[in-house]
From TrEMBL:
One of its GO terms (biological process) is snRNA 3'-end processing. It holds the Pfam family CAF1. GO terms for molecular function: 3'-5'-RNA exonuclease activity; snRNA binding; zinc ion binding. Keywords: Metal-binding, Zinc, Zinc-finger. This is TOE1. One of its GO terms (cellular component) is Cajal body. A zinc finger (C3H1-type) spans 310-338. Residues 362-375 have a biased composition (Basic and acidic residues). Belongs to the CAF1 family. It comes from Mytilus coruscus.
Amino acid sequence: MFFIDKTCGGKNRKIEKVKIIFVRSYNIQTIWPSLMLALKSATYVAIDTELSGIGDRKTLNARQIEERYKSMSESAKSRSIVSLGFSCFKLTEVTACNRSPVTNGDGDDCNDENNFPKSNKWVFSVQTFNITALCSDEYIVEPPSLEFLVDHGFDFNKQYAKGISYYRGPDRPDFPGPSFLRQLFISVLVSEVPVVFHNALMDLMFLYQNLYTNLPTSSSMFLADLTEMFPNGMIDTKYVTDFQHRMPASYLEYVFRKRQRDNYFGIESHRSYSAIDIPNYAKMSDQVIVCNVKLPQSYTTDIPEEQIDKLKDSVCEVFGGHGWCGKGSKCKRSHDIDLILDLDQFVQTKKRRKRKRRRHNRENSELSEESKETFDDSIQEEVTPMENVEENECHVKDITLPADILKKPVEIVRSGSHRAGFDAFMTGFILSTYIAQYGSYNGSFLLKDLGVDQMKNSIYLTGKDHPLNIVKSSFSKTSKEHRDKFMKLKVGRPLES
């Protein structure tokens, strides 16, 4: 679990473990009440899907958005969701340095003070569910997708034996037994909780087709439907990372690990940071998996320059840049995210120091010229270039890495488990750190009041320098199947035709 420091600026412990509840056909009824409570009380819900395939990669990234939409629609209608991740984040406390905590406990009044300092601790209570799904309809299975899932620990035997059955498309009153997954998605819509994805478009289209109804015939109609389905908005952390925060890479595990590091530096330097509280689950130990997210020692160190080339040779450049490698487990180079981040930090630190030295030398040169005009050379003062203390570097120290890190062959460290639940947690955690860094607190614990509206309703588009905006065009109607179904869910709420 995450350990939460109860003081601002006091001793803080690092994130080490994440606990995830596995939900399958034999325990869904038992877990259902807890899942509903976590969902309905959440500030936002992070969602991720694992799929049996995604279709033709070329048409998925076609130049025209409408062509992409049609290709993804065909994939969503012919492939299936094999696993669904839900991570419910509830903001429970905002604590400013040297001030009493403002709590969101049941029945407690919130402190309405508005003039908080910029540095706050944002505490989120988090419950994460990894739901194994089994589509009852025929669907296409793509070998590369299955190989990827198996390579990252997905158990297809358990999926076929214990997966929760569901069907695609419109409602089927004659479907045998309860359809828990479709009820879960409907609960998300009815609760009007904000939703969060990382690279949202494919997830949204699969959820719509697999757990809601048939996708509309056009992208504009689909976007119009989404504005009604999610009235409190959605956030795509991949878009935020690429276009607002601007990281060197934006694939999920890279962003999570980078934000985890930056969040810890925020704790150490008394800047705003996110703190995560996870229930103990002592009575559910047989249904909970623990994921280790402990940071290595190297993240607080500077890599000696003479060792960089050897480390670079051990890393898979393709994976480092994009988060995937066509060779998969057969790749002979490391997919270790922490090593990739260590190398990126070295490059970025080196660039910052060069810029700092050039800027300082230029200023020093100008100062020297001015001094010649005013003072005698004999009384000029020598100026030493400043050390770079920008962004976290005050926490970095030069060390000599252990000799065994440079030995060949390098230990091949694969990317994370890629379970849908863990990916959903990573997505939600990323947003929590963005809220801590960019958001603002005014007494409300609702996402719409936390100062992150600029992040809402913009979806990342691969290969494009602009997002897909979730807005209802004045020239587009919502789809008929959506209107018919949504009217039943929102009785008494007027819908535009």
